[in-house]
Amino acid sequence: MMGEVRTPDRPTSRTTMRRAIGRAIVSMAGLGAVLLAWEASVSLWSIPLYVLPAPTVIALQIERDWALLARHLQPTLLEAVGGFVIGNLIATGLAATFVYAPPLSRMLYPVAIGLRTIPLVAITPLLVVWLGNGYAPKIAIAALISFFPTLVNMSRGFASPSADQLELMHALAASQWQVFRLVRWPASLPYLFASLKIAATSSVLGAIVAEWIGSDRGLGYLIVAATFEYRVARLWATIAVSTALALAAFLTVVAFERLAIPWRSEDHE
Asked: Which residue, 114, 195, 122, is CA-closest to 158?
């Protein structure tokens, strides 16, 4: 019909899947190119093992030490997940409180910034003294490092609804809980997942750094032990496993984002 306006078709599930597979192939090709260049450089310039082992050497070391690496991976994973969950829950709850209590935000926000500026290597020994030498101080560090990005993003996310949206809810006599559930929370989801992507990798880093001090297990402890024992291949193998853990955490958040807000994923295809 004349004058009819056609809206662009939404991408189908099959199209979205093809695009996702295509991006994965490109990413794997890029990683493969880096590893090949690394391997060739080590071989071409005869770089000593103690300076930089080749990727094949690291892979063989991972295979050789897999039982050891898996045993030390478990506590690091537990600490990272525990800190990630606790830190993000506290940050999200505090950000929601800030929206409805601006004076509290002005009072506590500088405190949160101050906590974020404390170096991890400085606060970890204190947490070991206060909480003991078990999982608690490592989880606390992972929670602390996950806390600030989520607090900042969710404070913006909860405040992101427009004045027109809030005025409409007021005209409909919606309660504060209904405004939060129907307007503020959905609007904050992109901000939430943006912060969770940062916190997912940061929590792994925080757990590993915390294990450097006063720990006898975990990937961080294994890195320190391999360094002092001059086991360079084992050191790089542990670094590779730590990197894989952080990447897996990031991709897990991405997968949940696609489930929670699929329309945003489609808009970014």
From this structure: 195
Query: Is residue 65 in a domain?
Result: no
Q: How far apart are CA 257 and CA 16, in angstroms?
A: 15
pLDDT digits (tens, 9 = 90+) for 202-232: 999 999 988 887 778 899 999 999 999 889 9
Reading the block at residue 244, the tokens are 């894989």
Contacts of 105 (CB under 8 A, 6+ apart): 98, 155
For residue 1, the 8-state DSSP code is: -
**Residue 51 falls inside a structural domain:** no
Residue 233 domain-assigned?
A: no
Is 264 a residue whose pLDDT tops 80? no
Question: Is 149 inside a domain boundary?
Answer: yes
User: 5 pLDDT exceeds 80?
Assistant: no
CA atoms within 13 A on the CB side of 75: 21
CA–CA distance from 26 to each of 1, 20, 23, 202, 251 (Å)?
43, 10, 5, 25, 16
pLDDT in tens, 148-194: 999 999 999 999 998 888 888 888 888 888 999 999 999 999 999 99
Helix 66-100 × helix 219-228 angle, to 10°: 130
Instruction: Please give the model's pTM, rounded to 2 decimal places.
Output: 0.85
Per the structure, the count of domains in the chain is 1
CB-based contact 195:158 (threshold 8 Å): no
Vertex 91, ends 264 and 123: CA angle to 5°?
130
Q: CATH code at 141?
A: 1.10.3720.10
